[in-house]
Every structure is written in C-alpha cells, then in structure tokens.
C-alpha cells in the first residue's frame, strides 16, 4: 500500500504539471514543473518525506540510467563536436563569464547608488 500511495503522489504532481502546461500553452517542461510542485508540497509539509520514500528510493538508485541517452547523443555526435570545438569552448567559457561580469557590474552599480542615498 505504501508503494501505491507514494506512486500516486508523484504521478499526481506530474499529471497536474502536464495539465498546467497544456492549459497555459507553456513550453516549460512538465516533468520539471512536477518536481517544483512536489518540492512545494514537501516544503509546506503537505507531503512528508516518508510518504515518498518507498517509490523515490528505487528511482534514485537507478537515476544514472536516465542520463544514458544524453551520453549516447554526445558520443553519436563526436564528429560534429570535434568540428566545432572552438565555438563550443568559446560558448562554454564566454557566456558564463560574461554573465557573471555583467551581474557583478549591475550589483556594484546598485550598491553604489544605495550608499549615495
């Protein structure tokens, strides 16, 4: 019975998320929204950890299997990656670095304005 209750809670969060994304015509991924809903339920105390543990523990044990398709996709496109590695490397370095620098500059600007007042 505990497995049934645990599964129903998880699947209900996913179903509600799927319904919301369809209703709102959102491109937000339903599984991610379902996890956010589940997190909100856990944080508010409406759902307790022990209610989810019977189904969640085996899922977490096999979590690496869910990432195998992504790894296969990378291996499948190694030729394309090797052709475009300078661009990819630039994107992986320049975009996060510029984001951090811009955010830092904006924060410094507003902190400076706050101290002037």
TrEMBL record:
What is one Pfam family matched by this protein?
LrgA
Which sequence ranges are marked TM in the entry?
27-47, 59-81, 87-110
Identify the keywords attached in UniProt to this record, alphabetized: Cell membrane, Membrane, Transmembrane, Transmembrane helix
Asked if the Swiss-Prot or TrEMBL record annotates the protein with the keyword Phosphoprotein, the reply is no
Please give an example of a GO cellular component term from this record. Answer: plasma membrane
Where does this protein chiefly localize? membrane
Q: Check the record and name the InterPro entries matching this protein.
A: LrgA/CidA
The membrane-topology field of this record reads: Multi-pass membrane protein
Q: Where in the cell is it found?
A: Cell membrane
Return the PANTHER family for the record: HOLIN-LIKE PROTEIN CIDA, HOLIN-LIKE PROTEIN CIDA-RELATED
Q: What is the protein name for this chain? A: Antiholin
Name its species.
Pseudoalteromonas lipolytica
């Amino acid at each position: 019975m505990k497995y049934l209750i645990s599964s129903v809670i998880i699947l209900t969060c996913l179903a509600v998320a799927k319904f919301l994304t369809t209703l709102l015509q959102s491109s937000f991924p339903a599984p991610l929204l379902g996890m956010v809903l589940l997190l909100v339920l856990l944080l508010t105390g409406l759902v307790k950890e022990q209610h989810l543990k019977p189904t969640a523990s085996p899922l977490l044990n096999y979590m690496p299997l869910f990432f195998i398709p992504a790894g296969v996709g990378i291996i499948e496109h190694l030729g394309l990656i090797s052709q475009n590695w300078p661009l990819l490397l630039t994107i992986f370095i320049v975009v996060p670095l510029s984001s951090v620098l811009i955010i830092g500059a904006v924060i410094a600007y507003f902190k400076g304005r706050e101290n002037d007042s």
